[in-house]
């Protein structure tokens, strides 16, 4: 009986220790889901927002971001990628239609059995954020004009 209690105490201490460096208090449901989904995650840091909890962590030498709702359901996993990791059709479309822009941000978001790419492109006068559709085309998600002085 003492071994069971001691074992449970160590497990609880291990779980809280894994999340202690973040300074954020997360729900037990989210902590349990995260531990199950990403057993070997390292350097976990948490941020609590109004509608979700975000874990920033390392897994297989890559920084990932996992988003959970209050019920502990995984909403999405996000990672920054290089442009050569884009599907060929999306990469070709960028070269063809946005050759005067440079890439300032690019990430992949996996959620509900679907992967979506977001790319921020800039030139001297504007920033354009594109979202992928079906891995073969981009749609404009947002355009921002720069203040030119």
- How much of the sequence lies in strands comes to 35-45%
What order do the SSEs take from the amino end to the carboxyl end, as H and E? HHEEEEHEEEE
Helix content: 25-40%
The CATH topology of the largest domain: Nuclear Transport Factor 2, Chain: A
**CATH-scheme architecture of the largest domain:** Roll
- Which class best fits the helix and strand makeup? alpha+beta
Number of extended strands = 8
Number of domains: 2
- Whole-number radius of gyration? 20 Å
Q: In angstroms, what separates the terminal alpha carbons?
A: 73 Å
Query: Mean pLDDT, nearest integer?
Result: 85
Question: Mind summarizing the main beta sheet?
Answer: 8 strands, antiparallel
* Number of helices, counting only DSSP H or I runs of 4 residues or more: 3
- The shape, in one word, is elongated
Question: Which parts are unreliable, with pLDDT below 50 for 5 consecutive residues or more?
Answer: 1-22
Adjacency order of strands in the biggest sheet: 1-2-3-4-5-6-7-8
């Amino acid at each position: 009986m003492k071994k069971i209690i001691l074992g449970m105490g160590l497990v609880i201490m291990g779980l809280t220790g894994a999340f202690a460096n973040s300074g954020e208090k997360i729900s037990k449901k989210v902590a349990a889901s995260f531990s199950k989904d990403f057993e070997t995650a390292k350097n976990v840091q948490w941020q609590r927002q109004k509608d979700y909890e975000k874990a920033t962590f390392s897994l297989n030498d890559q920084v990932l971001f996992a988003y959970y709702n209050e019920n502990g359901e995984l909403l999405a996993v996000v990672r920054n990628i290089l442009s050569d990791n884009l599907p060929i059709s999306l990469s070709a479309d960028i070269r063809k239609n946005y050759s005067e822009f440079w890439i300032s941000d690019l990430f992949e978001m996996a959620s509900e059995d679907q992967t979506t790419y977001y790319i921020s492109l800039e030139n001297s006068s504007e920033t354009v954020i594109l979202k992928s559709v079906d891995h073969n085309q981009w749609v404009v998600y947002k355009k921002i004009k720069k203040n030119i002085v």
